[in-house]
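Handout, page 2. Input:
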Amino acid sequence: MENPFDGVILFIPFLIQWWWIFLPPILFFIFKELWLYYVKIGYLSRMSWTMLEISVPREVFQTPKAIENIFASLHSISIPPEFMEIYRKGKVQDYICLEMVGGGGKSHFYIRTPSGLKGYVSSQIYAHYPKAEIKEVSDYTADMPLNAPDTQYDLWGTEMKLTKEDGYPIKTYIEFEDTVEEKRIDPVSSLIESFAQLRDNEQIWIQILIRPTYAPWDKEGQKLVNKIIGKKTASKKDWADKFLDMMFLPIKIMLSAEGGKKEEKKEPSLMQHLSPGQKEIVESIERNVSKLGFDTAIRTLYIGKRDVFNRANIAAIMGFFKQFNTLNLNGFRPNSEISPRVKFPIFKKQREYARKKKIYRAYRLRLPAKINFIFNTEELATIFHFPSTVVEAPSTPRIEAKKAEPPINLPI
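Output:
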């Protein structure tokens, strides 16, 4: 009977003789990854951050389109770091955290930004919400235990991922709107209502990390469209293919000269053969990738004292994200690799505890997420915007009185 390990045994002498060829590249790759991790952690720890809390007056009439325009302006906040900046200083592209927090029956909207961008971010908010009040506040996560879960507090958390590729859009605020203003539905309203039901010793945190993307995601969207309509896409050639093409180029020229110029056939449009549903998908993808995109990561966390910890609040969080799902386009689902629940029974409690610790630490430190996806400005404005007058949100801090300049002739 043939030994299945014969090939491995024969390969060992080869490795022993030629190790000096294979080992250095492997060690270099490992060292490079460790070094990048070290310098990036150092760079992030030295960064100065500012937490801004935004409150809007009760009579705000702006739709999420206003904050979509803010996101479009924020796309200019960063330029990708250069090669030496990455490997010497660990520099990363600037990113911003959009955070919605509920606790004790109240809701808060925060933007955590690098301190150097504080003025620019504030000016963009004032440009679209002139009556807004922006306060510099301390980090709300500092009010919770440093090492939860513990004997007093329990928690649940996860990172969200998309059900399909980035090019497929989620259900956006435009689809929640009706022609009559009074019938317009604000997708944030369900979350605000959940915040209002929370007691003093429990909180819901939602964190959205964004940074401008410079990836050609419009091309990725076109690939999806071509796949749907059945159009063949030329595969990208690597350096080996390009080298072979160059070697055989003289032969191709000779053959084409002898055979004459071939008449190119014009392919008919494939759109006419699509069903109405497929046409809608194609149009949605093309519209989605036509807007500015952000590398996006979403974390959510529910924390509370053990005597009031209510798992129904987890369902409320997931319900907020589920309303943006469609079967033919895109939607949200929790990342099972991050969520506390584990299926394999060995050391189940210990592993669930370790996962809770990990997601809690990642949220507090605003660490880069395991899974990123690209959202355009419209999608971001759908899941993060200030509630309008359509939302009856008594738990949201509001400015009760309008602010105005004093009269010019006021005696001093």
